[in-house]
Amino acid sequence: METLSHAITASASPKLSLRQNDNLSRLIRYSHGFSSLNLRTVRSQRRSRVFSKVECDQQSSKNNIDFSEPDWKSKFQQDFEKRFNIPHITDIFPDAHSFPSTFCLRMRTPVTEDFTEGYPSDEEWHGYINNNDRVLLKVIHYSSTTSAGAECIDPNCTWVEQWVHRAGPREKIYFKPEEVKAAIVTCGGLCPGLNDVIRQIVITLQIYGVKNIVGIPFGYRGFSDKDLAEMPLSRKVVQNIHLSGGSLLGVSRGGPPVSEIVNSMEERGINMLFVLGGNGTHAGANAIHDECRKRKLKVAVVGVPKTIDNDILLMDKTFGFDTAVEESQRAINSAYIEAHSAYHGIGVVKLMGRSSGFIAMQSSLASGQVDICLIPEVPFNLHGPHGVLRHLKYVIETKGSAVVCVAEGAGQNLVQKTNATDASGNIVFGDFGVHIQQEIKKYFKEIGIPADVKYIDPTYMIRACRANASDGILCTVLGQNAVHGAFAGYSGITVGICNTHYVYFPIPEVISHPREVDPNSRMWHRCLTSTGQPDFV
Ligand SMILES: Nc1ncnc2c1ncn2[C@@H]1O[C@H](COP(=O)(O)OP(=O)(O)OP(=O)(O)O)[C@@H](O)[C@H]1O
Ligand SMILES: O=P(O)(O)OC[C@H]1O[C@](O)(CO)[C@@H](O)[C@@H]1O
Ligand SMILES: [Mg+2]
């Protein structure tokens, strides 16, 4: 189905200025409420077309939204509620029994006995979340589509409350702890905090009374590779794992088809699966959830979004991102010291972030030492009167040294395509860091100004480390909430932080496309204010 946003971005007029790009991105957001879309397509097309209001109107009618109808807002909200409904076991097992929760913090001792005499509970305790509790997804009321970062639904930017489900322990649970076999799997690239999340999932499962907990080694591959044995997990095993980075279970890209994964889950008797990973992993988790439903299996599949790239939609941030930004400071500071101590020193730092520039933007903001920040979401020229190199010359002439921070995915139109993909099918990028370093050297040679260029690529150092305190807390809450969601009978969901509150999202809504830096957002504008860089097109 061609979605509204898709259609908006579907055709082209090459090379937009930063301001034009801003307009387009604002209007993409403008349509976002109605549809999901493939952002890979949008990103490549986003720079290629200016959007008109007439077209928006045309498209909105295509999507059965007529803003002139007096009740369009309630229709939108009903549609939103449907989209953000979180799948529940009772959807396929209407007669599924629920039980009083075994999760009760008033219990004096952890559950170690069998439940032969019934489940322990404390009727006085009121620490549960009501299933009807909701959290506001958007908290700003923009009065105009021209407001910075405006995310509008209709041309008047009408305030429309959008509610999502609050995460946390429920009073009724849909799994008997003694019948649960829970499995945890970590997929994709490494990310600070994976061990913290594994640890909290295990600890919380045990508090519910689950004894059969296993780790699946090396991502989805662990479901199919007969040489990889599942790892029994307990509080004792995970007690100190958060003190080091990486994943106790190991990670991998690629892996078996979904049907094989579900076959393996059936063979092993897994009825709760916790999946830690990024957008690819979540696409897999959702497919596993669908397959389990197709086979009428009473299984809860719950995701915990993991990515240093911060490219998962709708959440304040993903765990590991803060730590990656913090680690990046060392690279930027080294680049600054090298550049500052050299005659006409230029430090270039390349930071990870496959298709989203969040790490580069936030790291530049945090350091205060960056003069030019280049991210994939904002087009730029290297050469020409408004190009990066001309501005670099100006910085050298006025400040004596400069620091350039580039995101891994920036400037891909300027480097040779690799035509390679990794085991999961992700495109392997050309090395823009090396390219810009060479271009800077060439340019200064050509104009006859000496320049001492130092290139730093910290690569995996920003993610192969232990989570910082703030990520540690985030991981703790997300891990616990993942278990609460599974026991509450939800499946095909993921946990997130939304306006500082914790929520459950249906998986498809957070991965319909990778989240990107909005060039019209206040945060990008703040970054520009901080670096002092101009528009490079
Ligand atoms: N559309 C999909 N359907 C099913 N499985 C998928 C899909 N996309 C990716 N996967 C599987 O998910 C796993 C992880 O995917 P991927 O390597 O893209 O990492 P990711 O979860 O996006 O994390 P990262 O942020 O580190 O890239 C792989 O095992 C891959 O096979
Ligand atoms: O571990 P790999 O496959 O080299 O992955 C690198 C990619 O993973 C990430 O760290 C997370 O998606 C990206 O920033 C980076 O592009
Ligand atoms: Mg990914």
TrEMBL record:
Its cofactor is Mg(2+). Substrate binds at T307, I308, D309, M352, G353, R354, E408, Y460, M461, I462, R463. One of its GO terms (cellular component) is cytoplasm. Allosterically activated by AMP. Pathway: Carbohydrate degradation; glycolysis; D-glyceraldehyde 3-phosphate and glycerone phosphate from D-glucose: step 3/4. Residues 182-484 form the Phosphofructokinase domain. The active site is at D309 (proton acceptor). Belongs to the phosphofructokinase type A (PFKA) family. PPi-dependent PFK group II subfamily. Atypical ATP-dependent clade 'X' sub-subfamily. Catalyzes the phosphorylation of D-fructose 6-phosphate to fructose 1,6-bisphosphate by ATP, the first committing step of glycolysis. This is ATP-dependent 6-phosphofructokinase. It comes from Durio zibethinus (Durian). The lineage of its organism: Eukaryota, Viridiplantae, Streptophyta, Embryophyta, Tracheophyta. The gene is LOC111292372.
